[in-house]
Design goal:
There is one protein chain. With 123 residues, the chain is of the alpha+beta class. 32% of the residues lie in helices and 25% in strands. The chain contains four helices and six strands; from the N terminus they run αββββαββαα. The chain has a six-stranded antiparallel beta sheet. The longest helix is centred in the C-terminal third of the chain and has 17 residues. It is globular and about 40 Å long. It starts with a helix and ends in a 9-residue tail after the last helix. InterPro entries: YjbR, YjbR-like_sf, YjbR/MT2646/Rv2570-like. This is MmcQ/YjbR family DNA-binding protein. Pfam families: YjbR (PF04237).
Length: 123
């Protein structure tokens, strides 16, 4: 998944915002809280996608080749796809959508209602 495809997908999720920070990383948020990041660090480094996941998904994904605990965010159960072939594009999209839902569910009921998120399923 290219950065443009990543951004297009995240842009189409409910009530998302995007900021560019941390050395040109594309950081996606819902209700002001981060749910997914696309970054590119260092010369020769490949693009990496990171996202929040459930405790169980975190355990399973971290055992797969090409997926690691996300730097600085692993304690909060984030993974990083370091190898673009580690996961299919559809699986990446599914996990990003789930990350969006996980973070949206952590918002207050009032904020979820204001953002039109009150109908999202719990993950």
């Amino acid at each position: 998944m290219s950065r443009e495809e990543f951004d297009d997908y995240c842009r189409n999720l409910t009530s998302t915002t995007n900021v560019i920070q941390w050395g040109n990383a594309s950081v996606w948020k819902v209700g002001g809280k981060i749910f997914a990041i696309c970054s590119h660090w260092g010369v020769g480094e490949t693009q990496k996608i990171s996202f929040k996941c459930s405790d169980l998904s975190y355990q399973v994904l971290c055992e797969l080749p090409g997926i690691t605990p996300a730097p600085y965010l692993a304690r909060a159960k984030w993974v990083q796809i370091a190898d673009p072939d580690a996961m299919s594009e559809q699986d990446v999209k599914d996990y990003i959508r789930t990350a969006h839902n996980i973070i949206a569910q952590k918002l207050t009921q009032k904020m979820r209602a204001e953002l039109g998120l009150d109908l999202l399923k719990k993950s």
